[in-house]
Amino acid sequence: MLMSFFTKSSKGFSLDGHVVGTGNTVRGPGLQISHSGKIKPLVKRQFRRKQAAIKCELSLVNIQEVGEGRRKTSKLVVDNKRYLGNIQDISIGGSAIKTNAPIIVGSRIKVSIDYVDNYTISVLGQVLRINRSIATGSIIHVKFLKVPRRAFNTINALVFGFDEDKP
């Protein structure tokens, strides 16, 4: 199991470990974890992120081969089934989305973000990792692969607070 933690100055670290049992603490039950002791720094984020609470829709995107022989090309096909989500944080490079959708790591997804009334932006992303919780759904971490210019400008305005009247 890979564990990550952050310092007060927002520096991130990770280490390998595994659960060896449970125990009681002053705050209640806790896990006993054995770890390697080899702490590794996490790579700093490439883009600034902003905490958010924005509704979105997710659709799986499949790659379909079209043509034959040398004329064979790939085409992205968006699945008709839509899942609801709630963006927890966002940057121009990706997002963390809370959802109950049955999505697996590596999936390509279309994320349609309800930015304001009658103004939706869509981006193509790929799921990098999933934090699962039975009670509250999952948090999927999505790397954006294709961001149209309008979406790029809107996300940057949100992240950097250019338009504080918007969510």
Number of strands: 11
Q: Give the CATH superfamily of the largest domain.
A: predicted glycosyltransferase like domains
How large a portion of the residues is in β-strands, by DSSP E?
A: over 45%
Estimated structural class: mainly beta
The fold-level CATH name of the largest domain is Thrombin, subunit H
Shape: globular
Strand/helix succession: EEEEEEEEEEEH
Instruction: Indicate the low-confidence ranges by residue numbers.
Output: none
The average pLDDT value, as a whole number, equals 84
CATH class of the largest domain: Mainly Beta
Order of strands side by side in the largest beta sheet? Answer: 5-7-8-11-10-9
How many structural domains can be distinguished in the coordinates?
Answer: 2
CATH architecture of the largest domain: Beta Barrel
Count of helices?
Answer: 1
Give an overview of the whole structure.
The protein has 167 residues and is mainly β. It has two domains: 2-41, no CATH class; 50-159, Thrombin, subunit H (Beta Barrel). 7% of the residues lie in helices and 60% in strands. The chain has one helix and eleven strands. It has one helix at 149-159, and strands at residues 2-6, 12-25, 28-35, 40-41, 50-66, 73-78, 83-91, 94-99, 108-116, 119-133, 137-146. The strands form two sheets. Strands 5-7-8-11-10-9 form a six-stranded antiparallel β-barrel. Strands 1, 2, 3 and 4 form a four-stranded antiparallel β-sheet that branches. The longest helix is centred in the C-terminal third of the chain and has 11 residues, at 149-159. The chain is globular. The chain starts with a strand and ends in an 8-residue tail after the last helix. The mean pLDDT is 84.
